[in-house]
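User: My instructor asked us to take a sequence, write out its structure as C-alpha cells, and then describe one feature of it. I'm not sure where to start. Here is the sequence I was given:
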Amino acid sequence: MYRMQWFTVTNPYKTISFALDAPIFKSRMRHGDFFAVGINFMNDNQSTVALTTNSYNGLISYTKFLGGKKLHYLTFGYEIGYNTKSVALNSLKFDSQYDPNTGGYSSAYGISENSGGAAARYFDMSTGVVWNFHTDRKFRSSLGLSLQHFTNPDVSIMGGTDRLLSKYAFQWNAAYKMGYNSNAVLLPDLLVAKQGGTLLINGGASIKYLLQERSHYTNFHGERSMAIGINYRYGDAAFINWRLDYEGIAFAVAYDVNISGLTPASRSVGAFEFMLQYRGMFGFDKNTKRTSERFM
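Assistant: Let's start with the prediction itself. The C-alpha cells for your sequence are:
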C-alpha cells in the first residue's frame, strides 16, 4: 500500500507498507482450525522535518472454528514489532534565525536545538480478536476488537520521556448479497478508535458487482468483481474508493476530500492511496472459511 497526503499544504506525508501472511499446521489440526503467521513493514515520512518512522512487525494468530448452524469462528492475534523514529532538525527555520539587518533568514544565527538529528528505538506490542460469522450465502459479517501499544513504549526522540498511549479500536465489516440470483453485494463498514483524547470514527459502504463468483466446490476459478464506495471520517474527510478483483489479484485506489479546518490551506485535497494484493500462495483456496481484510 502507498499513501500520499496533504501535498497542497506542505511537502507531502508519504506512507508505504507491505504485509505477508499464511496459515500453518493446517494438516495437523482438527475441525478446520489453523494458526497463521505474518510479517509487515511500514515506512512513514513527514518530509518537512524529515520525521521518519520505520516499523518491522511479526504476527501470529489462531483461528478456532465454533461450528453451529450459522458457521461462527474466532481469530485471536498478537503482534510484536521493532520501531525506529528519527528527525532531522537542520531542515527547520526558527525565529531566532531572523536577521534584522537583511530582514530575512540567516543560517549564521544559531539555534538552541540540536541542529543535527535525534532518534528513538523501541519495541511495541498489540493484540486483538475477530469474530466472523455468516448465516447463508447472502450474508457474512466480521466484528473485531483490538488493543494496540499496550506496553506504552517510550517514543521520545528529544530526551525525556514520551509514552505512546494505548489505542482501543472496534471494527465491523459485512457483506450482504442483494438476492440469491443478484450480482450486487452491499459492503458496509465501521471503524471506531480511541487513543488518549483523540477519537476516530470512520464509516461508509461500498457496492460490489460480481463479474464471476468464486467456485464454491472446486478451485476451478476465483472471484472477479469490481466495487466502488464512499466513506466519511468524522470531522476530517470524505473519501471514495474503487477496487478491482481478478482471480487472486486485487487493485484498489482511494481519494480523500478534506473537509476539516485545514480546508483553506489544503484546497480540499486530502490524500491518494493505492493498494495491490495477491492471494493464492500456500494453498489459500483450500481453506474456504478464511476471509481477507477489505481495503479502506
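For the description part of your assignment, you could build on this observation: Residues 263-266 form the longest helix (4 residues). Try explaining in your own words what that tells you about the chain.
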